[in-house]
Amino acid sequence: MSHGQGDTSVLLDGSIGSELAYSWPSKVNLDSVYIYSRVDSIMNEGIKQTAFPGAQLLVAKEGKIIFHEAYGFHTYDSLQPVALNDIYDLASVTKIAGPLPALMKLVDEKKLDLDAPFSNYWRSWKGKKDKKDLTLREILAHQAGLEPYIVFLNTVMKKDRLKKRFIQPVKSNRFQKQAYDGIFVKNKFQNKMHRMIRRSEVNEDKKYRYSGLTFLIFPQLIEQLTGMTYERYLRETIYDPLGCYTLGFNPDRWQVTNNIVPTEIDTLYRKTLTHGWVHDENASLLGGVSGNAGLFATALDLAKLMQLYQNYGSFNGQRILSESTMKEFTAIQFANNENRRGLGFDKPLLDNSELSLSDAYPAPNAAANSFGHSGFTGTFVWADPKNQLVFIFLSNRVYPSRSHRKLYSLNIRTALHQVFYEAAND
After folding, report:
1. Which of 208, 149, 213 is CA-nearest to residue 333?
2. Looking at the domain 1-426, which fold is it?
3. Which residues lie closer than 8 Å to 251 by C-beta, 6 or more apart?
């Protein structure tokens, strides 16, 4: 099996223990020929139909990486082939890879109670009648009725121009958060975002409504409860113990030699190709460090995190999160409200196993206890504890623009996911 050129991370893997060593599909009773022919066909069709210029897929079964291949190029000019140690903008996969492990750790340490009012911890909500009684459980399961999204870019722009009151071209004491080359955001803009979230409407109908707003708040909550910066807390308690050295925010500021895959040619705000900077505008206005988006990583480092989750909190013999908290977070919370979600984690559609491949999410054969998340840039991660299957798909489908939606209409990620269930040698 080819593991790409210059993929030093593969060599690192052997030194961190037996889990996630590279192996072969046949070692876990899967049909190699079937897997390669089907995956090649789906991926090549995706590239041909311009669903993405390139992508990569990593699949681990029973704690062994049995498939890791790269397809296509960084962009449609076919100059830079996708390599296995490339770093991708994870978009909303950040939600389960950034704030969520920290929140689980704080639940473990009894610093957070899922069923207490969130306003006990986030005090500014105490005086808001529609928010003061919302629990963290309702919020994380998208059952709280919060607004789905606020486009904060509308606040800093007027008729295609950035307002000088919020954005300056050079760094200064009051403008320290960098959103791009020559774009520095006012430090206090974060407080304005928090105020706008506090004033946003809450739907009184208690039903499933996906909202990313509190994920913009969680980093500050985590800092408040731990006394450490959000980035440092994640690095020391989650990423370094797992050996996830490429998982982090603002990758241009690390000393990494891995190539970073570009995302979108931004015609609205940055007026250039977004490359090495977070694609999501709300996260960029926070200086690239957020809970809703902003993380970058290689497929291998994401696989380590998802393997930790699949093992309900342990990896390579070390316990990082408690099994009971992991099981709580990955369970459906409000099934009687037709809400499939766990706490922060996405789950299969409630009747997924009965659906056709074209209607299912994720693969119809994924177990009911499986979980994961997708990202706007074309990323998707899923863990299936019952079938011991970790699935990592990374692409930059938003290149050159987010109008490229063939990844969804061709159902590429679900089709690829299903291949690894159908490949079992009975």
Report:
1. 208
2. Beta-lactamase (3.40.710)
3. 87, 260, 276, 296
Spans of all domains in the chain:
1-426
Q: Which residues contact 135 (CB under 8 A, 6 or more apart)?
A: 114, 115, 116, 117, 118, 144
C-alpha distance from residue 246 to each of 37, 237, 242, 296, 343 (Å): 30, 15, 11, 7, 25
DSSP assignments along 377-417, one per residue: TTEEEEEETTTTEEEEEEE-TTSS-TT--HHHHTTHHHHHH
Mean pLDDT score, 296-301: 98
Q: How large is the average pLDDT for residues 246-259?
A: 92
Tell me if 419 sits within 8 A of 40, measured CB to CB. Answer: no
The tens digit of pLDDT for each residue in 171-183 reads 999 999 999 999 9
3-state secondary structure of 356: coil
Q: Amino acid letter at 231?
A: E
Interatomic CA distance for residues 226 and 366, integer angstroms: 36
Q: Does residue 55 come out as left (phi exceeding 0), alpha (psi in the -120 to 50 range) or beta? A: beta
Whole-angstrom distance, CA of residue 268 vs CA of residue 272: 9
Which residue type is seen at 79? L
Percent of the chain scored above 70 by pLDDT? 96
CB 54 within 8 A of CB 81: yes
**pLDDT grade for 122, boundaries at 50, 70 and 90:** very high
CA–CA separation, 200 and 202 (whole Å): 7
Q: Does position 14 have pLDDT exceeding 70, yes or no?
A: no
The reported pTM is 0.95
What are the C-alpha distances in Å from 379 to residues 77, 210, 216? 21, 18, 20
Cis peptide before 364 (omega within 30 of 0): no
What would the DSSP string read from start to end of 68-107? EEEEEBSSTT--SB--TT-BEE-GGGHHHHTHHHHHHHHH
